[in-house]
């Protein structure tokens, strides 16, 4: 090396930065929202009609505080991958739509890139959600008879249903995630610009605005597809052989016939509260990590 020359700094591609920052954001989101997610999953099951606070007290009293975090291992281990895939897919689609040129995307382009990201992430999220849901629906505590740990549950599903069993609910998951991610990214961009004018073009430096924009985007995106999530949860709650449903359409039909229209909004308030916390954390961590990786 000649005198006065310094080694060049390691330059990460935009795609790699999206991937790494998305993974960091995803892990932060899981930790922030797992207790409310456990309550949401229980509320969505047939036969439950109580409020979130009552259910939370019941879970803690009977199963212990740790039960609110049951099933977190699967999403925490895979949240980095899931959100990394989402943000990387979004970035790839965004760069394709703009021809690789710098500058802000139109809201239509943002929505299209978000839908693409939602479709891509389905392959990652389906088995994770299925295992998480079945862990969360257990009432036996760790060490007690009948308790099934995460690895044992994974083995049980593979032995009984094969790889196909892990992907039960793929169609309804894609129906939920494709449009919701379009809404997710579009609402985030709109809200961030409203809270901090000029941030779409120049970046954001206001942590509170990032959190609020991410939280609002998450809440609105969940609200836009929530009935599909209720159906997805019920479909994935049991193996095909034990399930009362022949598929997601049959699940929706039976749920409506047996419980009325309100069934499709069970656990909605809990979900929206969780979505605000989780997605505020995801976008805040993502934006911070993305800047640090420059």
TrEMBL record:
<feature type="repeat" description="Solcar">
    <location>
        <begin position="205"/>
        <end position="292"/>
    </location>
</feature>
<protein>
    <submittedName>
        <fullName>Uncharacterized protein</fullName>
    </submittedName>
</protein>
<dbReference type="InterPro" id="IPR023395">
    <property type="entry name" value="MCP_dom_sf"/>
</dbReference>
<keyword id="KW-1133">Transmembrane helix</keyword>
<feature type="repeat" description="Solcar">
    <location>
        <begin position="13"/>
        <end position="96"/>
    </location>
</feature>
<comment type="similarity">
    <text>Belongs to the mitochondrial carrier (TC 2.A.29) family.</text>
</comment>
<dbReference type="Pfam" id="PF00153">
    <property type="entry name" value="Mito_carr"/>
</dbReference>
<dbReference type="InterPro" id="IPR002067">
    <property type="entry name" value="MCP"/>
</dbReference>
<keyword id="KW-0496">Mitochondrion</keyword>
<dbReference type="GO" id="GO:0022857">
    <property type="term" value="F:transmembrane transporter activity"/>
</dbReference>
<keyword id="KW-0813">Transport</keyword>
<keyword id="KW-0677">Repeat</keyword>
<keyword id="KW-0472">Membrane</keyword>
<dbReference type="InterPro" id="IPR050567">
    <property type="entry name" value="Mitochondrial_Carrier"/>
</dbReference>
<dbReference type="GO" id="GO:0031966">
    <property type="term" value="C:mitochondrial membrane"/>
</dbReference>
<dbReference type="InterPro" id="IPR018108">
    <property type="entry name" value="MCP_transmembrane"/>
</dbReference>
<feature type="repeat" description="Solcar">
    <location>
        <begin position="105"/>
        <end position="194"/>
    </location>
</feature>
<keyword id="KW-0812">Transmembrane</keyword>
């Amino acid at each position: 090396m000649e005198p006065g020359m310094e080694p060049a700094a390691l330059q990460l591609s935009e795609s790699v930065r999206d991937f790494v920052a998305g993974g960091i954001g995803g892990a932060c989101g899981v930790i922030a929202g797992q207790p409310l997610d456990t309550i949401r999953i229980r509320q969505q099951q047939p036969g439950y009609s109580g409020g979130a606070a009552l259910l939370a007290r019941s879970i803690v009293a009977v199963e212990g505080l740790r039960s609110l975090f049951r099933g977190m291992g699967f999403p925490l281990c895979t949240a980095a991958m899931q959100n990394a895939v989402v943000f990387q897919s979004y970035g790839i689609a965004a760069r394709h739509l703009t021809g690789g040129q710098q500058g802000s995307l139109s809201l239509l382009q943002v929505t299209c890139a978000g839908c693409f990201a939602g479709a891509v992430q389905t392959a990652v999220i389906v088995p994770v959600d299925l295992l998480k849901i079945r862990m969360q629906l257990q009432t036996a505590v760790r060490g007690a008879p009948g308790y099934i740990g995460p690895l044992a549950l994974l083995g049980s599903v593979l032995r009984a249903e094969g790889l196909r069993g892990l992907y039960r609910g793929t169609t309804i998951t894609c129906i939920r995630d494709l449009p919701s991610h379009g809404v997710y990214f579009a609402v985030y961009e709109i809200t961030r610009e409203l809270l901090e004018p000029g941030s779409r073009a120049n970046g954001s430096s206001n942590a509170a605005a990032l959190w609020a924009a991410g939280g609002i985007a998450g809440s609105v995106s969940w609200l836009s597809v929530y009935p599909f999530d209720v159906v997805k949860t019920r479909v994935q709650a049991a193996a095909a052989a034990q399930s009362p449903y022949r598929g997601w359409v049959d699940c929706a039909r039976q749920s409506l016939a047996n419980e009325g229209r309100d069934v499709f909004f069970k656990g909605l308030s809990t979900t929206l509260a969780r979505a605000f916390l989780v997605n505020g954390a995801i976008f805040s961590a993502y934006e911070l990590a993305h800047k640090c990786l420059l």
